Amino acid sequence: METTGPVYLTRERMRELERDLHEMKSKGRTEIADKISEARSHGDLSENAEYDAAKEEQGLFELRISKLEGVLSRARLIEAKDLPNDAVYILSNVTLEDLNNGETVTYKLVSPEEANFEDDKISVTSPIGKALLKKKLGDEVHVVVPAGSLDYRITGISR
User: Fold this and answer.
1) DSSP H/E element including 59
2) How far apart are CA 51 and CA 36, in angstroms?
3) CB atoms within 10 A of CB 139
4) Are 154 and 106 members of one domain?
5) CA distances from 18 to 22, 35, 71, 99, 110 (A)
């Protein structure tokens, strides 16, 4: 994940990340502090694996909080209504016909922070996302992916 420059998020995703951060800072930190306290009560800290594990977990947890704060500090809100409708852009729903087998699939192009392949949300920085950007209805697209290559025709673009 990139650490500089803006991070484009939908309003929904920004709220989700803000909720996650709030929960991590309140409930999550309290839970880890309780684990450390419990482990500390078991005696000699120099030979206390439970204490060492809890401190390690705390460090990783604080790192996740820091990364999330960084993403939110660089966040820029994007809305589909503010983007052109003449081609494929971020937040476009793109329907593709596979030219090899005739199957169709629809993807939503999103920022890397929102990508979730199981929900058919692909990043604009992924091989398919990059290949689709600025293409128009009816365009054919050749994409090289780790598993080989794909050939698509764009049969639909919507917001």
Assistant:
1) helix 49-73
2) 6
3) 15
4) yes
5) 6, 25, 10, 41, 18
Q: CA torsion 11→13→16→18, rounded to 10°?
A: -70
Structural domain of 88: 81-158
Residue 109 to residue 131: CA distance in whole angstroms:
11
Count the Cβ atoms, other than its own, within 10 Å of residue 85.
Answer: 11
Q: Residue 1 domain-assigned?
A: no
| pTM of the predicted structure, to 2 decimals | 0.70
Which regions of the chain are under pLDDT 50?
Answer: 1-2
151, two tokens = 């050939």
What pLDDT was estimated at residue 2? 47
Phi and psi, residue 113, nearest 5°: -70, -20
Assess if residue 138 is contained within a domain: yes
Nearest residue to 14 (alpha-carbon basis) of 87, 63, 74? 74
Alpha-carbon span 5 to 95, nearest angstrom:
30
CATH number of the domain to which 58 belongs: 1.10.287.180
Number of H helices, E strands in the chain: 4, 7
